[in-house]
Amino acid sequence: MGEEGMVSDAKNRGLKSNPKLTVLPLIALIFYEVSGGPFGIEDSVKAGGGPLLSLLGFLIFPLIWSIPEALVTAELATSFPENGGYVIWISSAFGPFWGFQEGFWKWFSGVMDNALYPVLFLDYLKHSFPIFNQLVARIPALLGITVSLTYLNYRGLHIVGFSAVTLAAFSLCPFVVMGILSIPRIRPKQWLVVDFKKMDWRGYFNTMFWNLNYWDKASTLAGEVQNPSKTFPRALFGAVVLVVLSYLIPLLAGTGATNSAPSEWSDGYFAEVGMLIGGSWLKWWIQVAAAMSNMGLFEAEMSGDSFQLLGMSEIGMLPAIFASRSKYGTPTISILCSASGVIFLSWMSFQEILEFLNFLYAIGMLLEFAAFIRLRIKKPDLHRPYKVPLQTFGVIMLCLPPALMLVLVRCLASVKTFLVSGAVIIVGFLLYPILVHAKDRKWVQFDAEQPPLPLNNSMEGHSDESQLHQEVQDEALVGLLTNLSSTNTKQESSEILLEEDLKSE
Fold first, then answer.
1. What CA–CA distance (Å, rounded) separates 377 from 440?
2. Could you please report the per-residue DSSP string of 273-301?
3. Which of 365-379, 385-399, 418-432, 444-458 is predicted with the least confidence, judged by mean pLDDT?
4. Which of 430, 413, 426, 433 is nearest to 361 (CA)?
5. What 8-state DSSP symbol labels residue 23?
6. Cα 293 to Cα 287: distance, rounded to the nearest angstrom
7. How far apart are CA 125 and CA 284, in angstroms?
8. For the chain, counts of helices (H) and of strands (E)
9. What is the largest CA-CA distance in the chain?
10. 319-351 pLDDT, tens per residue?
């Protein structure tokens, strides 16, 4: 007992020394989880038949999709401030089976999403360095980029967070300059151009959805955030404003100050817009910024995916090895697992990855909205440091528009996407009972302990709030952990009852 206590104390001291995420680094990480800048939104002009629907889309879609998802994330992430995020929300609302499915779908879609960024990184650089068109240089470069950025994640979230701040500033600066230079040339009537005959509704909605989703991803880092009850709502609000402005300013400048036809707008076209407005120096700056942005996107996605696996391990859904941390406080095995998935999936095409991850993400988000409503009904007394100021009917109406959008995205998917996503779902259904059986048979070590709350900052005087949060949250998490280990609990209870009967006789 004494030795275990010493190990636990040493572990806690190690965790105390790891810096927590504050508002600015968390804004940058959320920004890169969701956006990373206007790179990739060019297709919305082409698919929308002109600038009008693209501009309206990035004004309206945040209202019916981004803001509701951010509000749901703010309430649930502050109510359950542990690594694992939405896995814990779903488990508390619907039980561990569905919590595991949510975690599997979201992790798989996240790894698929992350496989895009090393490829896009080289796609932007190859315009200036044609050697990256050749496999002899491209393959080692892809591996080198993946390994290097994975190592940066290994070194700690505080490094990743402040790296994201630097990358975000560098990536957005050329578009601020482009916006200023475009002012004398802007003709507002250019923004009103639309040709409904040339619209590609499937491409339009997929582009909008992909560029405005993943607001919930940062919840998987909730255990690494300093004072999450205040930091999360502020960071989400700041990130929503930053993302919307990072889309609208370049679109307003590019479509209003040039005579480019909608058909010319495709991935990478902002570099050409920079050339037309500012010259070759601005084009080069945008290309480098695009490459740096893909680095930030990779870092943010990798952090979310790896800490999600860590959180699932901490509540006993995955073997304990996934919860092991390095001396920097990062989940080593979880990072390696996510990096291996990125390398394995990098052979797929951009459009294939985009459609697959959108489909799986849509299923997971429908489950999150359902959990949000169910927890309002099932656990009205749950301590919510931040609460969406709406009653039950109000939160249902809040979730209805984004839920309809998720259904629309699924309906627009191809047959191939339905088949591949269906296979992934079946694997998740089969994997859960296998892990439960392995846990019951003790083939692999699982950690069934309740995940600890983030260490409090005594200087800020939040001890009373944390104590109340602990009391209310214990009920939800203990119920979850009881379900996860029901077989062992029933067996132990039977043994105790049998022993009492023998003594009474």
1. 33
2. HHHHHH-HHHHHHHHHHHHHHHHHHHHHH
3. 444-458
4. 413
5. H
6. 10
7. 10
8. 20, 0
9. 96
10. 888 888 878 777 888 888 888 877 777 666 666
- Buried b or exposed e, range 258-287, using 16+ CB within 10 angstroms: bebebeebebbbbbbbbebbbeeebbbbbb
Amino acid at 354: L
Place of tokens 């999450």: 228
Q: Are 222 and 77 in contact (CB under 8 A)?
A: yes
SS (H, E, C) 227-290: CHHHHHHHHHHHHHHHHHHHHHHHHHHHHHCCCCCHHHCCCCHHHHHHHHHHCHHHHHHHHHHH
CB neighbour list of residue 505: distance below 8 Å, 6 or more residues apart: none
For residue 223, give both structure tokens. 């255990």
d(CA 90, CA 100): 9
pLDDT of residue 502: 41
- At 478, list the tokens: 């203990």
CB contact set of 433 (below 8 Å; sequence gap of 6+):
none
The answer to whether 114 and 340 have CB atoms below 8 angstroms apart is no
The pLDDT assigned to 471 comes to 40
For residue 467, give both structure tokens.
Answer: 């104590």
pLDDT, tens only, 218-276: 777 777 788 888 888 888 899 999 999 999 999 999 999 998 898 888 877 888 899 99
